[in-house]
Amino acid sequence: MPLSSWSAPENPQLRSDLTRRFGVSSLMRLSYTAPGDLRWPKAGAPSPSSPSEHEEWGRAVIQNPVSRAERLLRPVAQLHGQTRLVTAALLIPVFAAVFWFTIPRGTWPRVLVALLVVTVVYALASYLLSRVSIRISHDCVNERGFFTTNRVASKRIESVLILTVYRGQSLETVQQLFLLDTTGDALLRMRGQFWSVDSIEAMASAFDVPVRRVEEPITGAALRRDYAPILYWFERWPLLGAAVSAGAIAGLSLVLILLMSPENLVVG
Asked: Which residues pair with 224 in a beta bridge?
């Protein structure tokens, strides 16, 4: 039975036992105007005394154990499918060709080891991607990223900025949301490549702060020029980001080569 459908028992003795167990008499009294709408009274308000008041208190507590503002946001579902498709398109032809050459020579076990390493890396990446989420509650935003976590207290959120940005060189646009503090620094960012419009709008309306929308689409270059302080480092310096990515790919390729043909790398 869901908690929202629970109501205090009609049996006065059972109600009294629950009161003693959970210490109702030591708590402040709650009042509500509609199911699921809880409001804490001022400190010092009298505790419920009569059975009917205990029943009202119990029903109010159970109907909204979590703030109504709480919501869990996840990346777009297509992201997982696109990741699998790109990985398969890159790896299947390569390993199929390598197996075709190595099986007649009897060196295929090394290729199999390399394939297992790549599979483990992909499985780990998929697991990390499945954990990515943003949880909105009444007093904070908890972001679980690919490698890191980020908790933003609601009192630090001063405003919301929503930009419309062209996707690459195409005319397709996506939204980008930034939660900003009093100094204009970004506390949290949501990019339309990974988050749906509904998720972005849910974040924009989650807190009672001003929302600034720039409806006119801007290019990636304009984004780097006008909003550089709130972008990621690899966006501010795209050449450096490309160099780091190329280095990571080269390092992984070297590991695969070492696994598949170590005899070709003998130092004389």
From this structure: none
